[in-house]
Amino acid sequence: MAGRLSFTVGFLIVASVGLLHGACAATTYTVGDDLGWTVQPNSSYYEDWASQKTFQIGDSFVFNWTTGTHTATEVSTREEYDNCTKMGIILVDAGVTVTFNANGTHYFLCSEGTHCEQGQKMVIKIGDGIAPSFAAPSLAAAAALSALFFSTVAIFFLN
């Protein structure tokens, strides 16, 4: 009986670690896929691109462009985004990778000429899109607590 219980508890621990590892897997997206970050013929291209994906904490975004002069400018508010306000954190080099480590909504646009007005802008919604009002525990902390919990359960049942 104790052998069977030990096997069951061991299996649960291994399964939990496997699930936590999968939960930690982040994805790297190339903004605009093969077309990259540039003025597109369809002004809703980037809105459509982002709306077809689910972005999670830890995901990375690569802003690539091979022709023309572009920027990836992060603005602070929806109003600045809607009005194509060209002041914010400006990324000027193609190939820059941006990683988000918390839920939130991020607004990017090209601050070059009229590119934003032509549709070179997008909203990246991480998780539920709501920035945490407190420091969220890391996945490593969650994994450690999970391991501690299952170890305690195993010790309890084995004694």
Automatic annotation (TrEMBL):
The keyword Ligase does not apply. Keywords: Membrane, Signal, Transmembrane, Transmembrane helix. The chain crosses the membrane at residues 139-158. Residues 27-128 form the Phytocyanin domain. Pfam families: Cu_bind_like. One of its GO terms (cellular component) is plasma membrane. Residues 1-25 form the signal peptide. GO terms for molecular function: electron transfer activity. InterPro entries: Cupredoxin, Phytocyanin-like, Phytocyanin_dom. This is BLUE COPPER PROTEIN. It comes from Salix koriyanagi.
